[in-house]
Amino acid sequence: MELTAKRIEVTEVGPRDGFQNVKTFIPTQDKVEIIKGLIESGIKSLELTSFVSPKAIPQLADSTAVCQSILEQYGGRIKASALVPNLKGAQAAWDAGIREVACVVSVTPEHNKANINRTHDESLAEIAKMVEGLPGMKVRVDLATALACPFTGWVLPDAVAALAKKVTALGINKLVLADTIGVATPDRVHALAVRMQRDFPDVSFSLHLHDTRGMGLANTLAGVMAGITTFETSVGGLGGCPFAPGAAGNTATEDMVSMFNEMGIETGVDMEKLLQVVGVVGNKVDAPLSSHMAKAKIYDCFQRAR
Amino acid sequence: MELTAKRIEVTEVGPRDGFQNVKTFIPTQDKVEIIKGLIESGIKSLELTSFVSPKAIPQLADSTAVCQSILEQYGGRIKASALVPNLKGAQAAWDAGIREVACVVSVTPEHNKANINRTHDESLAEIAKMVEGLPGMKVRVDLATALACPFTGWVLPDAVAALAKKVTALGINKLVLADTIGVATPDRVHALAVRMQRDFPDVSFSLHLHDTRGMGLANTLAGVMAGITTFETSVGGLGGCPFAPGAAGNTATEDMVSMFNEMGIETGVDMEKLLQVVGVVGNKVDAPLSSHMAKAKIYDCFQRAR
After folding, report:
1. Are the C-beta atoms of residues B74 and B39 closer than 8 Å to each other?
2. Nearest Cβ partner of B259 from A190, A215, A297?
3. Is A2 part of any domain?
4. Which is the most buried residue in A262, B35, B242, B267, by most CB within 10 A?
5. Torsion sign, CA atoms A210, A214, A220, A222
6. Residue A208 · residue A241 · CB < 8 Å
7. Which residues lie below 8 Å from residue A183, measured CB to CB, with a gap of 6+?
8. Which helix (DSSP H) or strand (DSSP E) does residue A218 occupy?
9. Long-range contacts from A82-85, C-beta under 8 angstroms, 24+ separation
10. What CATH number is attached to the domain comprising A27?
11. Is residue B2 in some structural domain?
């Protein structure tokens, strides 16, 4: 098994994708404690929150406070980003110290409409507004349903490339390929990643792979084999998708870090410290953790044997 | 992603490895119903039970009745096997109509001692007795802790090859490489599979991969890339390891079948029928199911979209 990658980077999205899917509001100080723990474990890239109407997502109504608290201590030492739906949200993120925002567009128009009630043209227009309105802000675009759509089935790389062409024409050079409902297979992930990197050599790609069917790490492996080295993960496997009932969340940060650390592919993350944070998440967040490492007591057991 | 395999075979071990790890005795008729369901879903190879002292494993005290019931209806159309600890068990299996038995030896002497209280020499002597005592019986050997041991840490391919050399010298040509505690990584699985097939070209190998750390399907993918086409799985992900506290069970049959079916690699298994059996297992077996497909309602949802 030839893997040229010596190092991969996880982008922790639990504080946004995870926390917004928890029904109860997690107190700001708990959010901050968890995020700081993640940073102290060695995670350098984090999607801290979302700047969106508190009426739409009350769980993240404290986005400004969370960002200020984290950036005050770690600003300049981490890559902090936030999800925003529009220029207004991006402006609020900027005011809170954020210099990279993520904006979601689904590859399938059907999912884009259901998810954010926009056509592709409307989404592209909003991205253009952000790029023009906030020249200092880096705008990353998350391509949702890049592998499969709950409304239309499998999504072909041609469709992803066609949308990516329009997005990159706006000046975007950072794209996330998301298996939003977690049904993609390793061969599809590999083919898409190879194709996109070939078609867009100046774009940096990351993968966002849900673990719905247990293929999260198999798909991650396929991504690494295709040359991808950055992956979005969520502590505890928190997160989900309203259009994928019963779906497990994102591939858990601790599951992915465990795999790469044990393979000798550097993540920069200390597993002991990360598992302590997972414990805090388990205590403070009112949601079941879908991660394997959170459940398995094998870690301690096997560590002692070595 | 170059995968030359067009077809893989799952060997269902839930009726042995799974049922023996359930605390309560599953009534014989429920066992038989589940096994028949698995066969009707398309599974052709099954480890039906274990012929072992009912004092040691009361859960499988009905091994003869289970085998007779299944073989009466499906004998000749399936590859039925049973786990046995010794010649006496193999004889009982033979009397129940079984023509292939599996015998476990751990690669690490420490685990062999803890698991079955034998030295390697004692295990090899017992295998020799079976081969000589029952010439018509095919004897398969499961090499436990072939990748990692809860007592000694990582296990190197050299150690696996050294034990396999002694085992094959007894006339055995079917070996299972087991990641007993489920901590192996894809690179290690790949390296071991490549090495063993090269060193033992006349032996057929299968993999038995636990999903403790969520790498079950990633390791399966690595196995397929190394040329392995048979995998032991357990319906519902039932099973476990007494030496791996908190460990999830085997990689679930339905998770693996889902991945391969969606990749266009033939398993011969009908997913709809298999998920019905998973439902029966969920109702009749008093144990949590660790499989992803058992939890995710995404299957129906995504099927409708296609």
Report:
1. yes
2. A215
3. no
4. B35
5. negative
6. no
7. A147, A148, A212, A213, B262, B298, B302
8. helix A216-225
9. A82/A16, A82/A47, A82/A48, A82/A49, A82/A50, A82/A51, A83/A16, A83/A47, A83/A49, A83/A50, A83/A51, A83/A52, A83/A142, A84/A50, A84/A51, A84/A52, A84/A130, A85/A50, A85/A52, A85/A116, A85/A126
10. 3.20.20.70
11. no
Strand, coil or helix: what is B268? Answer: coil
What average pLDDT score do residues B141-145 get?
Answer: 97
Q: State how beta strands B45-50 and A204-209 pair.
A: unpaired
**Does B296 reside within a domain?**
yes
Q: Report ipTM for this prediction.
A: 0.95
- In A, minimum Cα distance to B261 occurs at A185
Mean pLDDT, rounded, of chain A: 94
Chain B residues in contact with A251 (beta carbon < 8 A): 214
Domain count, chain A: 1
In a domain, A166, yes or no: yes
Give me B34's structure tokens: 């589940």
Cβ-defined contact of A298 to B244 (cutoff 8 Å): yes
Residue with tokens 């042995």: B16
Per residue in A125-160, pLDDT (tens digit) is 999 999 999 999 999 999 999 999 999 999 999 999
> Distance, in angstroms, between A182 CA and closest chain B CA?
9
State the alpha helices, DSSP H only, in chain B.
28-40, 63-74, 87-95, 109-116, 120-133, 157-168, 186-199, 216-225, 253-263, 271-284, 292-295, 298-305
Q: Which of A220, A225, A247 sits opposite B298 (nearest CB)?
A: A247
Judge: A245–B301 Cβ closer than 8 Å, yes or no: yes
- Average pLDDT of the residues in B29-37: 98
d(CA A188, CA A9): 22
Rounded Cα–Cα distance for residues A87 and A75 (Å): 23
Q: What are phi and psi of B234, to 5 degrees?
A: -135, 130
Domain membership of residue B31 as a residue range: 9-305
